[in-house]
Request: fold
Amino acid sequence: MATVAYWLQRQRKPDLQNLASHVGMTQYDNLLKPDLEVALDDYLRRNQTRLQSDPALSSFYKRLESPHKREKSSGTGGGVGATSSAATEEVKKPKQRRQTIKAREDLEPPSESEPQLPLTTTSPTSPRTPFTSTPYSLARQLALPASPTQIADRVEESTTTLKTSFADLYTTSPIPTTLSSLRAKLSTVTSIQLLVLSLEAFGLFRQTVPLKYLTTIPAVPALGLFGPTALKLPDLFALLTSAFWLPFALWLTTSMLLPVTAAWFLNLRSTRDEEGGYDPVTFGVVKGLVAWIVYVRDGLEGESKGVVEGSVPGGSAGMMVGAGISVLGGIYDAVLRK
Reply:
């Protein structure tokens, strides 16, 4: 008695149904897997002449024509008659192979070298489509990490590469050189004094040069303007009036001209090798003394004095604090020079 081809036993039931539809076999939907194997084996044997050239069935017919099969067929009498009788007997007794077939199906996975059938099922009434194999090797072609440890290593490697790229970009850019140069220029007593004078001048400018309405900007939510906003710009025509120049001249004289002149003449840092410049300590002392006389002790009367005192941040006390900062900066710079 001929047995079912081992190649059919290793296929899954959906694959066998797809193969049955492919070769033109009908009435196989309600068959169990062992019965379907037997019926399909018999159908393929009986239609060997027509189907043996099909690439999808090459493995089946190669195993059918192996030496073991030939010896078995010759021992039973040889010829087409023996094959037909064996297939008929195989169809009559399908239940004898059910347990063996299921055990082989569970224990032995399909071979990678053999063509696999697609997992889709088709009905007998559906149109016949070319039989193609499913690419089970697609997962092997993808470079997927084997464990979470490898994933963490790759993430860490990518992060390190990104940090290195940003560090190299920052190092080769002119930003470090520019920042170092700016820090060196600001780390002087003169820069500190200019910063204090700039704050006083900005306050005086806002007080003496009023803002003038120019236009109205409509609401622009993208720019943070959720309603109509009035656009105002400094009225530069105020620079042509005495309301600006009288307070500005008073502030310029008391906060810059008198302190700088006194610091240049009374320069305690000047030596034979270092001539010129001014003494920042003298500058701060004279500025504080002048501010105390003019603004605190009311050494000068007039409207301009009130404008300057009201516009400078902190008023007269703010000017005294600025002078004290200049004195401390000069003393600290002198100590470092020693």
Q: What stands out?
A: Residues 67-115, 117-127, 129-136 have pLDDT under 50 and may be disordered. The longest strand covers residues 211-217.
